[in-house]
Design brief:
Mean pLDDT: 90
Number of strands: 0
Shape: globular
Order of helices and strands: HHHHHHHHHHHHHHHHHHH
Structural class: mainly alpha
Strand content: under 5%
Low-confidence stretches: none
Radius of gyration: 20 Å
Number of helices: 19
Helix content: 55-70%
Largest sheet: none
Length: 364
């Protein structure tokens, strides 16, 4: 074996298969990345069980919720997993999380400035990082309770917040973009905290993974059944109760929270279980993408802006760009790039950069 091949194998072990790394979390992140690619790049008809070509509609809304849930899982794993860190170590971790939040927020603003017509999730992600700060010492039980209270309670409040006159003003529009209000943090904190709870529950353990699958699937089935016409399906969707109980993507309704939040937890559990089998080698390219989700997400939007500006002369032409059929080229290039980078260099370029800046600004 050549020296280069040996180095690649060592880097692969270090980055993707290192002892203690939960491979299923990388797989779940990879699925979330490509789910967001689908939501951005494809024109998708509403889900119809009888028409398989519409099944990709499950990516709408659910991929971003999976992203938020995985943010919580990642924060939990970085701060002790089932055994929360404390003392000076926790203080350093909090400062570094603040630095990451600021950097992610700034990157989000730069992506918004490209004019690409998507709701950039990174500003909301940054706010969620800050929300996590006071929760890092809590145990799993408390976190599950917090997640449930917010997830069940905020859908009743969100329609009132969305109706505030502020959002109809120029200042409100700017504030909405700065906060990523398309992903309202007052509600999306529930997904982040659920992810924190999963991480504190020992998400890499087989027993926990099965609980996540069972509980998540149960919540999704219950939400789907409740949205059927004999029960709640005949509500006025524009009325207060219709908005509170909505199940549509990005509605912030109770049934969306239960169904998509449950689906996110079930996906995390299923990915952990899959990667406890030999299939983990088969899905290595997906795991590579999931090991550098910020790089993949930012790369998609930067490439979109560059191609649209060159070919269409307008980065904001959504349907013109989708007409170029960019989904599969973006997927294949991302898979190839992330896999090669992970095998040769290990950690993703943006992930490496943010970690280095956080260490520099918040040293031990």
């Amino acid at each position: 074996m050549s020296e280069r091949a040996q180095r690649a194998r060592r880097n692969a072990a270090t980055s993707l298969d290192a002892p203690g790394r939960i491979q299923g979390i990388d797989l779940a992140r990879g699925l979330a990345v490509f789910g967001m690619f689908a939501a951005h790049l494809l024109t998708i008809e509403p889900f119809d069980l009888a028409r398989p070509e519409t099944w990709i509609d499950i990516a709408n809304g659910r991929s971003s919720i999976l992203f938020a849930t995985l943010a919580g899982v990642s924060i939990a794993l970085m701060t002790g997993g089932p055994h929360p860190i404390g003392g000076r170590t926790l203080s350093v971790a909090r400062r570094r999380l603040v630095v990451r939040a600021v950097l992610v927020w700034l990157i989000g603003l730069l992506l918004i400035a490209t004019g690409v017509p998507v709701y950039v999730i990174l500003p909301a992600y940054a706010v969620l990082f800050l929300i996590a700060l006071p929760l890092l010492r809590l145990r799993a039980r408390s976190l599950w309770i917090f997640a449930a209270v917010i997830g069940l309670g905020m859908p009743w409040v969100l329609p009132r917040l969305d109706a505030l006159p502020l959002w109809q003003t120029p200042t409100g529009g700017d504030l909405s973009r700065l906060l990523g209000w398309h992903y309202p943090f007052v509600l999306w904190a529930a997904f982040l905290i659920a992810g924190l709870a999963a991480g504190r529950s020992g998400v890499g353990e087989r027993r926990t993974a099965w609980w996540l699958v069972g509980g998540g699937v149960g919540a999704t089935i219950a939400a789907t059944a409740a949205s059927a016409p004999p029960l709640l399906g005949n509500l006025d969707p524009d009325g207060y109760l219709g908005r509170v109980l909505a199940d549509e993507a990005h509605s912030g309704g109770l049934l969306e929270v239960a169904g998509s939040g449950g689906g996110a937890l079930a996906t995390v559990g299923a990915c952990v279980l899959i990667c406890r089998t030999r299939a983990t080698g088969v899905v290595l390219p997906l795991r590579a993408v999931g090991s550098m989700p910020l790089t993949a997400y930012v790369g998609q939007i930067v490439a979109w802006a560059a191609i649209a500006a060159t070919v269409l002369g307008d980065t904001g032409d959504l349907f013109g760009f989708r007409a170029l059929d960019p989904f599969w080229p973006f997927v294949l290039v991302t898979l190839a790039f992330c896999t090669a980078w992970a095998l040769v260099f290990g950690r993703g370029p943006l992930e490496r950069l943010l970690a280095a800046i956080a260490r520099r600004l918040a040293p031990h």
